[in-house]
Amino acid sequence: MRTVASNRRARHDYHLLGEVECGIALTGTEVKSLRQGRASIAEAFGLIRRGELFLIGATIPEYSHGNVFNHPPARERKLLLHKRELAQWDKAVREKGVTIVPLELFFRGHLVKVRMALARGKKLYDKREAERKKDDRRDMDRAMSRKR
After folding, report:
1. Which of 18, 57, 73, 135 could form a disulfide with 44 if both were Cys (CB 3.0 to 4.6 A apart)?
2. Domains of the chain, CATH where assigned
3. 120 SS3 class
4. How far apart are CA 72 and CA 44, in angstroms?
């Protein structure tokens, strides 16, 4: 498994309720661009439309050696998911404050996959609490390493 892009802000900004690994429908030049390690999913989100899941806002730059058949960098991309999982997520997204965010774009063998998460936005005090716990854990680790 080789990671191409990850959304590090997602774990900071959201409570993750569930994760799923999806396939993604791409063109040839998009795959070649991903093999060069160029992609961004920081501003992306998932949208369920007519019983299908789409990745919107993800940017895969044009392939450097592409020609007139190169792909548009910021197009909607269809995600491939089992019907039952999609129905569960559609029901959950209809709740207030729940959204779908991408966590990671990666290669599994020769296939490109996206790890998507069902997420609920964190409040400011939740973010502060998480930051405080992280700092405390770091301080404890430093103290333990000094003791050794």
Report:
1. 57
2. 2-122 (2.40.280.10)
3. strand
4. 16
